[in-house]
Design goal:
The protein has helices at 21-33, 51-60, 77-92, 109-121, and strands spanning 5-11, 39-43, 65-70, 98-101. By secondary structure, the chain is an alpha/beta fold. Strands 2-1-3-4 form a four-stranded parallel sheet, sandwiched between helices.
Length: 128
């Protein structure tokens, strides 16, 4: 059975493929928490796949609604200009499929709280 709603975790990308590690671990954790939700990774540059490929993969799995979740700290220039154009282009390629861009992960109150808790926990790290 396919899920009608899927997620693309969308990151900037980097020349070092290890940069994608946290996103890969996030996708793996999502699979543990909600195994029925299809999740794909996509990157703006340097690392494959690009957004079109990730959207195509979800559509091929029967997904009809896709949330593109930017794994960015803030709504900067890419998320205000470049990424909406990429999302619109991906959506235009699939009739009957909704592709929506949501707010950057770093803007979510729960993420801000998690970063604050982590930063405060760093006070307990002994000096070297």
């Amino acid at each position: 059975m396919t899920a009608p709603h899927g997620i693309v975790l969308f990151g900037h990308g980097a020349r070092d493929p290890a940069w994608a590690g946290p996103m890969q671990r996030t996708a793996a954790r999502m699979a543990e928490l909600s195994p029925g939700v299809p999740v794909e990774l996509a990157f703006m540059e340097f690392i494959a796949p690009v957004l079109d490929v990730a959207v195509d993969r979800l559509v091929a799995r029967g997904v009809t609604r896709i949330s593109v979740v930017p794994v960015f700290l803030a709504q900067g220039g890419h998320l205000k200009r470049d990424v909406p154009a990429l999302v619109s282009a991906a959506a235009a390629r699939h009739d009957g499929v909704t592709v929506e861009l949501v707010t950057a992960a770093g803007e979510a109150p729960a993420v801000i709280d998690a970063i604050a808790v982590y930063a405060l926990a760093c006070l307990a790290i002994p000096e070297a």
